[in-house]
Amino acid sequence: MTSSPLIDSHCHIVFPNFEDDLEEVAARWRAVGVKSLLHACVEPSEIPAIKALADRFPELRYSVGVHPLDTKHWRGIETIDVLRKAALQDSRVVAIGELGLDLFKDSNLEEQLAVLRPQLDLAFELDLPVIVHCRDAATPMISLLQELKELGRLVKGVMHCWGGDVHEMEKFLSFGFYISFSGTVTFPKATKIHECALKVPEDRFLIETDCPFLAPVPKRGKRNEPSYVEAVASKVADIRGESFAFVAERSTSNARLLFGLP
């Protein structure tokens, strides 16, 4: 399987549990054919460390943003200025995010929207795609995107680590969004995700690890890492009845098109 190039379109290797063996982790992702990684950012204080990782690993690109569960790091205009400056100073910043809504772990919808809207405006201003975290919050997210569409301010982007149903997926596809699949697609009981993986158009899906979280079967429960994106591609291929090489090629070309990845 290693002859097909892969892109891990969403990872977090800045976390402390990669400090001791990151060179070995990199050797493993290169060994399975991962040619590019997109490192997501959850809050601004991470940016210098992620930038240092991009200096260390030339295949890495990254996003800048504030996660919906990290609203405590939001400082309004001050934060937007930090994100804008980071994006304009480094061409390796290819997206705004990870942003979005999470009503599974929190219920502060208005606070999350107050953090989300300015980031979507920044992405529109900079003409960058967004990485959208959306958990138990499809209805308000669809409403907001519809509002932006009517205003002519809709951005492109990806629904990251998708866990919704086909009806919700079709709404996000109608806005021009891509759908990304992570290790959760390998979980036997994740039937909604399996159906989405089956029905998503071939030119609109990405694959990711979201490491160190959500390790795929058979690594479930362990620390996830970028090389495991191979297992995600393999499962998506099984679900769709397509070859591994085809899924690897399509997901790679889709990620390159959306994010301008090498």
From TrEMBL:
One annotated GO biological process: D-amino acid catabolic process
Positions of a divalent metal cation 1 binding: 10, 12, 98, 210
GO MF entry, a single one: DNA nuclease activity
Cofactor binding notes: Binds 2 divalent metal cations per subunit.
Binding site for a divalent metal cation 2: 98, 133, 160
Catalytic activity reported: D-tyrosyl-tRNA(Tyr) + H2O = D-tyrosine + tRNA(Tyr); a D-aminoacyl-tRNA + H2O = a tRNA + a D-alpha-amino acid + H(+)
Keyword terms of this UniProt record: Hydrolase, Metal-binding
Source superkingdom: Bacteria
Requisite cofactors: a divalent metal cation
Top EC class of this enzyme: hydrolase
EC number: 3.1.1.96
Keyword Cytoplasm: no
Keyword tRNA-binding applies: no
GO cellular component: cytosol
Function: Catalyzes the hydrolysis of D-tyrosyl-tRNA(Tyr).
Similarity annotation: Belongs to the metallo-dependent hydrolases superfamily. TatD-type hydrolase family. DTD3 subfamily.
Protein name stated in the entry: D-aminoacyl-tRNA deacylase
Gene behind this protein: tatD
